[in-house]
Amino acid sequence: xxxxxxxxxxxxxxxxxxxxxxxxxxxxxxxxxxxxxxxxxxxxxxxxxxxxxxxxxxxxxxxxxxxxxxxxxxxxxxxxxxxxxxxxxxxxxxxxxxxxxxxxxxxxxxxxxxxxxxxxxxxxxxxxxxxxxxxxxxxxxxxxxxxxxxxxxxxxxxxxxxxxxxxxxxxxxxxxxxxxxxxxxxxxxxxxxxxxxxxxxxxxxxxxxxxxxxxxxxxxxxxxxxxxxxxxxxxxxxxxxxxxxxxxxxxxxxxxxxxxxxxxxxxxxxxxxxxxxxxxxxxxxxxxxxxxxxxxxxxxxxxxxxxxxxxxxxxxxxxxxxxxxxxxxxxxxxxxxxx
Length: 339
Ligand code: SF4
Hints:
By secondary structure, the protein is α/β, with parallel strands linked by helices. It is built from twelve helices and twelve strands. Strands 6-7-8-3-9-10-12-11 form an eight-stranded mixed β-sheet, with helices on both faces. A four-stranded antiparallel β-sheet has the order 2-1-4-5, with helices on both faces.
């Protein structure tokens, strides 16, 4: 049903780079000795629970939500850092979960990641030239060509003077420069997809806009597709084309950035927007704001709406699971307020 809805929204097979269908990943938490003695059931964390979406080539798809919503787990599943319990991932027309060894080499070359922390994601014992060149070495690119490609990548991310930066160690660089190195490392293989997991959240405010502007210009120049993971809707608004809002492992709202951020439908999205620092109090982003419960009320089990305990509009019907349905063209929401 969801897949139908997304097709209706205008996604065409020819322009979709990534298709994710009913992805599921549950983690089983270990029980304490006391819980075992008390005969309590195994605790299951439904980190990702039936998530479907498509990402068009050359666009930025934002996965947004608070900590624990499942957004980083989805990224790790897409990149096959962990295996899903169920679901399907199609990348450039190929089923990622059934790729053979050669297929995985192709996939790893074309799907790269930028991590959140530029301080721990770079090996402190390697010079920049080796850090950025490492993926090329793994893929068998020779030394001379490798060095040329690294220097070009450093130029692309505006790390000047290139010859000097290339021989520095990470501790000799600022946070912004380190994240530029991380971007160069992701870029050097000329991937089709880059998954950026909160790439600016650990940087100074003054540097964030520069890094996002750089990523945006690289996207246009190289037709890169991004999955941008964030809890910060103000950067999503600047950087994204489409967005999925996640809550406890499920998508609760999805659509274009403009539709979702200027006309939020789900109470959780409305609350997230309420939390965006907004210098202009009359902004359109302020038109629909609600207060969610900071002290959750009665929980419902995972068969119902997972936002039930915090939702000011919760009704009896919300004890069932609301489907993600298209309520306006291309704008999907999972909430019984929009039956
Ligand atoms: Fe609130 Fe019910 Fe909508 Fe869930 S389905 S967000 S509990 S109104």
